[in-house]
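name: query_chain
kind: protein
chains: 1
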Amino acid sequence: MKLLIVEDDAVIAAGIEYSLEQEGFATTIAGTVAEAREKMQETEFDFYLLDLTLPDGTGYEICKEAKQKADVPVIFLTAIDDEGNVVMGLDMGADDYITKPFRIRELISRIKSVLRRYGKSGQTDNKVSIGSIEILVNEAKVYKEKQEVILTAMEYRLLLVFVKNLGKVLSRNQLLEGIWDVTGDFVNDNTLTVYIKRLREKLEDDPQNPTVIRTVRGLGYIMEKQ
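structure:
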């Protein structure tokens, strides 16, 4: 299940993303209405977490556009605990409303509650297979030909970005956004090159001629189900 987090506070957004991915959700972050619209053009999301107040508009705008496309679950995140805002959001079709600051476990509980009403589980498949490689998402384990492959936290995070976007060409900028470190450590373009090289060395039969993480010249990289 693909979940879009629209939140202009990068620290809050990264914390939510990290926690939800540990629960098996596939997440994408946007910090503005404009960025959210770009993400929505690229991907059909199954769930929306929307900050109410954004630099270039409101979460109401995203909610309206998302609901026009499909009957998808929406939860608003806001620092404004005002009945009028609550009613407006619910009238637009939002499923729930949570006021900041909130406990992450409460947010996860509410997400799962909304998903149950929609008859959905909310989690990605635990086992993803790409050729001889198996990724057990919930356990954060990777196997190649039944032998466990030991990855660093950042290597695994990069692998998850590819897993969430199987069959989709990802630019270097998209990959950098996906592996932004929740601890605040800077990940630059050169570092990305190193992580891709290390992943290939651990996963590919022939790292010099990769078939798992392929380069698409001039565009980026792709991982496809084999």
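note: Helices lie at 10-22, 33-42, 59-69, 83-91, 104-117, 153-164, 172-178, 189-203.
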